[in-house]
Amino acid sequence: MTPDEIIEDMIKDFRGEGLGRRIRKYVGGLLPAFCDFLLEIPTPGRGFSNFDAFLAEYPLITEGVSTLTVRYGKGQKTIRPAYERIHHFYIFEKKRLGFPRSPPYATGKWGDYRHWLDALVTFSEEQLVEVRERAKQFVLDEMEAVVFDPSLVRVDPPVFKLLLEQFDFRARAKGEPTGAVFQAMVFGFIRADAPHLQVEARKVRAGSARTKGIGDIDAWEGDRLIISAEVKHFVVSMDQVATFEHFSHEIRQRAALGMIVAEGFQDGVREAIEEKG
Fold first, then answer.
1. What is the DSSP letter of 233?
2. C-alpha distances in angstroms, 155 versus 150, 159, 163, 192?
């Protein structure tokens, strides 16, 4: 077989063209692997007339293996590493994700292509390189690259962000305490962010100390406090930082995460709160 004939034969098997042929896309990796295997030995210029002549110098190993494996030097050589490289090239480098993902199966079918090997062992280095590169290019042309395109991903609207931006937290029903909805939002945020914790909320506008809590909202893991939040539906001033002394002390004692959630903070307040731990 000539290089052209081998390539044409590979294409027919790859596509499953012809009477009785099944689609065998793995041949797009097997043929380049054969070429690299023979280049590494190397066979060009050795005068082999066919594959049997090659095996007379490099005896075939069949015990315990299913892929093409021969005695080489003091050890053995197999086509598996060459196939793994081309497999990685197609799938991971060139994103041909439709290429078969079973190297053991593909290399185990090498015996169906001894007629290729009869010709390949007679080829020059230039011819082996040509066949290898033509086979690779065919696969790249035949198979479409699967590349992630972020623009095609449907993104759900950021509901919580929209709620924070557009909801009027000062609107309330008759008899509803001020700050109730704001505190409910903080509760919902902590509950969603840490669903494994038991989250408890205090009655709005009731001191946490009087209700036996640490903060307005506490999140527990068993009897261990993990998160505690003080919720202030106003802009916190520097004068009010001192009111968090008890809260910060309790947080530090329990090595918990303390949160002060408010509408806003005057200049310097954030830093003063952070200094309290």
1. E
2. 10, 11, 17, 19
Domain that includes residue 221, residue range: 159-275
The verdict on residue 149 lying in a domain is: no
Residues 255, 197 within the same domain: yes
The residue out of 142, 172, 205 marking a domain boundary is 142
Q: Does a structural domain hold residue 152? A: no
- The last residue of a domain, from among 142, 171, 187: 142
Mean pLDDT, residues 38-61? 96
pLDDT of residue 219: 94
Arithmetic mean of pLDDT, 145-153: 81
Hunting for tokens 């197609």 — which residue is that?
90
The pLDDT of 13-32, averaged and rounded, is 92
Say which residue, 137 or 20, is predicted with more confidence.
137
| Residue 245 in this model has a pLDDT that exceeds 80 | yes
156 falls in which pLDDT band (50, 70, 90)?
A: confident
d(CA 210, CA 266): 28
Residue 202 DSSP one-character state: P
Verify that 237 and 186 share a domain, yes or no.
Answer: yes
Residue 65 lies in a domain: yes
What gap in Å lies between CA 262 and CA 186, rounded to an integer?
10
Q: What distance in Å separates the CA atoms of residue 31 and residue 37, rounded to the nearest whole number?
A: 10
225 and 256 in contact (C-beta within 8 Å)? yes
Q: For residues 249-277, b (16+ Cβ closer than 10 Å) or e, as one string?
A: ebbeeeebebbbbbeebeeebeebbeebe
Q: Give me the number of domains the chain comprises.
A: 2
Same domain membership, residue 258 and residue 163? yes
CA distances from residue 85 to 36, 101, 132 in whole angstroms, order as listed: 10, 12, 13
Q: Which of 177, 111, 139 is nearest to 29 (CA)?
A: 139
- Model pLDDT, residue 205: 57
